[in-house]
Amino acid sequence: MRKLSSALFLVFLSLVSYAQQADSTNNFADNEEAVFVKPDNSDPLKFGLKLGVGYSDFMGSEFAHAVGRVGINGSAYLRYRFKPKWSFQTEVGASFRGSNFSNATSEYSSIRMYYIDVPVMLGYAFDKTNNDLLIAGFQYSYLLNSSIYIADGALPEGNSPSFIKSDIPLILGVQFNTPFVGFQILSKYGLVNLNQNQQWPSNAKPVNTFGTIHNFSIELNLLF
Questions:
Q1: Are 174 and 223 in contact (CB under 8 A)?
Q2: Is residue 113 classed exposed, middle or buried when 0-12, 13-18 and 19+ CB atoms within 10 A define those classes?
């Protein structure tokens, strides 16, 4: 009986010792899993999100008192590095654009536009890590909605100004990547005259003289 008790006691000690070793090993493994390592920016393929703010304005002969406005933008992007210093990036996103105006009190004070954007850009890196890039490309933009404001109130939807729906802005900018976030500065100029043969509501003053209207914007974006 004593031999059996001694044997059981030895087995119990062995099990306790094994459990303590296993727990120590698991804790070490857990500590390893808790370490967060972000992939290097030089990886060939990267998916991410982009959020930013932009200053937009109208260029052309139609508006004499455009002063610009600030809007937000966001997108999902895919970047593919096909050569050590060359990468291709495309996105699908949305942006708020338009402009404010320093017109008279009874005249329109703001035009606000909501776009769906699909940029296609090439990036050239200044070093092999792809941390600093020069970016150039173009973008397809589709106008989902536009509103015109007199003072602080918007005209009814049926009286919204009419613009060409599709625009193709040229893109030029720079991008700086850190281990956890990227910074991007872009300028965009729309090639399409948005006011070609377009009708505006009769109570939108000054009246439309059918001069040229081109989108222009500068964006400051964060890439994750």
A1: no
A2: buried
Any idea what DSSP says for residue 158?
Answer: G
Domain ranges of the chain: 1-35, 45-223
3 state SS of 159: helix
Express each pLDDT in 163-186 by its tens digit: 999 999 999 999 998 888 999 999
Is the distance from CB of 59 to CB of 169 less than 8 angstroms?
A: no
Q: pTM surpassing 0.90?
A: no
Determine if residue 78 is left, alpha or beta; phi over 0 gives left, psi from -120 to 50 gives alpha, anything else beta.
beta
Amino acid at 22: A
Task: Return the CATH fold of 45-223.
Answer: Porin (2.40.160)
Q: What is the pLDDT of residues 50-102, one digit of tens each?
A: 999 999 999 999 998 899 999 999 999 999 998 888 999 999 999 999 999 99
